[in-house]
Design a protein that fits this description.
Length: 390
């Protein structure tokens, strides 16, 4: 039975929360994504099912899952690796990405395309590729694909409501015709534009934007700051007809990615334990020592305890805590332990979770916070509003 403590909230969305967490037996730190409401638990179960079947240096690592009982509430929990750099959207919107040059854009694009190629080869469609769902790796030139809550089996054959974030959706998804690997490629193109400009590929004009994406002949404007090769790469992603878009296999052969060295991506280690995590992610002066400390190892332990105490659970759920941490002893656990030589275990992921819509889709709906399925209905409402206006 795994015993762990819940730390501060590092992300909050319509589904629930993402918190720092500490394994009491191993001192390993990780991120725990939790949901308690039925429709959100269903989406989280889908993400657990998908993520637990994947293993790629370009996809956030699954560490385990469990059910916990906290403050009379049953929580479904997904344990993931920690990537302290934040999201690609945060980096792009802060203009920090503009300062590092196009080579970093190429490296990030290579990582995303590699992740998509891998999941597509396994019959999985992500359905929500965007900057918010891409996490910065510990290697400065690498990123990892995350958030598989909307993912589907490409072979399911069942009609589905649109899934994902409207401003990143492919035209055929908006129209409700198809959502498959080529739809992810369109979203990839929109994400590259977001990466370069710091803004979505389309202006957010509510239902009118959906009409433009789904029912016109328009494509997003290509960033002028991107090289000719980069713009050509985007044109291969942003064909309105799905069968005209390149596959991820083809995109990896595009000259835009030729200068990327795969051996330098996805290999740097994430924090493995409490001290590593605090030293790398929560740097602070630690000159003050607890009275009576007699050795450097004692001092390190005291410093760690002091730092742990500062990572208090904040806002939202008011769980009982012990020195700022909520102790959790799972009722049902399926936790993946790190094997010998597995340098990627005992790590976690730093998410800034947002609603799938990212922003309000139409004025009358506002900031909808609900499941992916309900958001699909919202998309259709907006489409109908647009058609009626037309």
């Amino acid at each position: 039975m795994i015993s762990w403590v819940r730390g501060k909230c590092i992300g909050r969305g319509s589904f629930g929360t993402v918190n720092l967490a500490l394994n009491k037996q191993t001192d390993a730190v990780f991120a725990v994504k939790s949901a308690s409401e039925a429709q959100h638990v269903q989406a989280l179960d889908n993400e657990i099912k998908v993520l637990s079947s994947l293993s790629s240096p370009f996809i956030v690592k699954f560490l385990g899952d469990d059910v916990s009982f906290e403050n009379s509430t049953t929580c479904r929990n997904l344990h993931m690796e920690y990537l302290p750099g934040g999201t690609l959207a945060d980096l792009a919107s802060s203009n920090r990405l503009a300062d590092v040059g196009e080579q970093t854009v190429r490296s990030f694009t290579y990582c995303i395309v590699s992740a998509l190629k891998y999941i597509h080869s396994r019959g999985i469609v992500h359905c929500d590729v965007k900057g918010r769902n891409i996490l910065l790796g510990n290697n400065s030139d690498s990123v990892k694909l995350a958030d598989f809550g909307s993912a589907i089996d490409d072979a399911c054959g069942e009609p589905l409501l649109p899934r994902g974030s409207p401003l990143w959706m492919a035209p055929e998804v908006i129209r409700g015709e198809y959502q498959g690997p080529k739809s992810d490629v369109w979203s990839l193109g929109c994400t590259i534009i977001e990466m370069v400009t710091g803004k979505p590929a389309w202006e957010d004009r509510g239902a009118d934007s959906l009409g433009l994406i789904g029912f016109s002949n328009e494509v997003p404007e290509l960033p002028s700051k991107l090289s000719v090769l980069g713009q050509d790469f985007l044109t291969r992603c942003l064909k309105r007809e799905p069968n005209q878009r390149w596959s991820c296999d083809q995109l990896l052969q595009h000259p835009f990615l030729a200068s990327v060295n795969p051996d330098l991506l996805g290999n740097e280690l994430s924090p493995r334990c409490v001290l590593d995590c605090f030293n790398s992610d929560f740097e602070e002066d630690s000159d003050v020592m607890e009275e009576g400390s007699t050795s450097s190892s004692d001092n390190i332990e005291v410093s760690a305890k002091n730092r742990i105490g500062k990572l208090v659970t904040s806002g939202g759920v008011n769980w009982e805590t012990n020195d700022g941490w909520s102790e959790v002893r799972s009722g049902r656990v399926n936790h993946r332990e790190s094997g010998e030589g597995d340098e990627s275990g005992s790590v976690l992921a730093n998410y800034t979770w947002m609603t799938l819509m990212d922003r309000p889709i139409v004025e009358l709906i506002g900031a909808v916070r609900c499941s992916a399925e309900v958001k699909g209905v919202v998309v259709w409402v907006a489409i109908m509003v647009h058609k009626k206006r037309s």
